Amino acid sequence: MVDGEQRRDALLDAATGVLLSRGYDKLTMVDVAEAAGLSRTIVYRHFASKRELVDAVAARALGGYAVRWRTALSEEPRPGTPGSIYRAGFRVVAADPLLTAIATRDPQVFGRYLRDPEATMPGPAGPEFLGLFLRRQQEAGVVRPGVDIASVAAVLEALTAAIMRAVQEHQGRPGSPSPDALIDTVTEMIDRMLTPPDVDTEAALALLDGVLDAGAGTPAQA
Question: Cα–Cα distances in Å, from 60 out to 23, 64, 103, 152?
Fold first, then answer.
């Protein structure tokens, strides 16, 4: 059983590398087997198809996202405000090429996979998770009353992909803002819009931990 799990992890590691370097459309099970140092037969024992393999690659990446997000949040100047929560998540995504590709639905990486109706890849922080968390924050007084939570959740999800694309497109151009400057600006906007003057950040962090512990930060929703 342990050998099987180790082989599966080795295949996912190899598939991640091939996916990022060659893209989904050019990825083959033979490529993955060779990169992992295993036989093609072993690949098919674990994954019935290329699509199923990439589903698993994305699910594993997103499975660790919530934990890394929570760690990054603890390093924020005011951990617990809506802006700090967003910035921490963005920085985790920006530091990981696979999460970046997932967040931006990068066609060079995922190609035809994005048009496959059976593909199961969600985003790093979907509107369902954001909406649930922001609604609980609002009920606890961490988000201002009267804010349209569904609209805010949809905007924040779209912002992540938009900022990542802007960073990719403008990186290195003279006069372009740095990634840190972009996210700091967005964070300030979010806090000005959502955060009450006397927010209880400890209560906000307790809410986040409760949502994650309840399973809302699983790959299906985060």
Answer: 18, 7, 14, 27
